[in-house]
Please model this.
Amino acid sequence: MHELALSQAIVDTAIRHAEGRRVTSVQMRIGTLRQVVPDSLAFYFEIVSRDTVCEGADLEHELVTALLECRDCGETWDPAPPPIATRGAELLPLGSVPTFRCPSCGTGGEVLRGGEFWVESITVENEEDACIAPR
Amino acid sequence: MHRTKVKVAEDALDANETIARANRDDFDRASVRVVNLMSAPGAGKTSLLERALADLDGVRAGVLEGDVQGSADADRIAALHVPVTQLNTDPSFGGECHLDANMVRSAIPSLPLDHIDLLVIENVGNLVCPAEFRVGEDARVMVASVAEGEDKPLKYPLMFRTCELVLINKVDLLPHLDFDLDRFLYNLDAVNPDVARMKLSARTGEGVDEWRSWLARLPDRVAAAV
Model:
């Protein structure tokens, strides 16, 4: 839903680092805990990059799987998107509902990975290779 | 055609974080504590503010209302003689579905920071986007109404995780709904284990004293944590 604002932020970051050079691709690292739909992001990126050095650039992304670390016992685990419990179902034991509670001791966890919305790098064309018309 | 890979290694939302920190500095300079109040549309943010802000034990409150259009919420707060500013995201900001740090910064000149101790920023009704954008707040609070269903924490984990207090509103409706409160609390604890929560009804006033007290003591709690 907010991919428009997010893609504008990506374009702004890329433009700043491109220093006037044309950008051919942007490499992102996106954590699975972020509420980002990559296709939607690419859609808005194409729109907001028009008339900038990012126009026509590919938006590439690597998904980073979430990893939490228990504050008490140090256990690490991937919370994963939980299924929706159906009405009337028995309360599922903790291990069956992917969760932000430690599977070993039930304490909450710190996020080690999965919250990234990172512009890792951009690929630019070198200025000195600008096309020269053949004589 | 030669291409070069340029290392960037930046959070794409750095710009928003920078402005959020600038907002925070302005609020700190004026000794104003700030709450970012979020929820789905219609969960009861404005109603809970109407209930709480009438009397805050001498703590002076102000409100920044965020909505796509109109001043309906600001009008309600103004009727309490609480200073309030309405921020519309449409047209100036393209009809955004959330407040970001830049929008809040634009409203700061119109806020009477020298005359208030507590600012409540009532965000645009939305369970998704506001969670992603810090605006310079000290605390994040969300309202989940029992009419929305017990699966919401599982569907919107970021919003439920990013808040330090969850206000479970409209409990007066429980006799008329199939809402399973135990299931809701189980789901809530799955995504934000042991987060503070209160059960309230803005309509009947049930539980509102605790909410009012939480707001009134926020300035002291923030000062003690510094």
About this structure: Chain B has eight helices and eight strands.
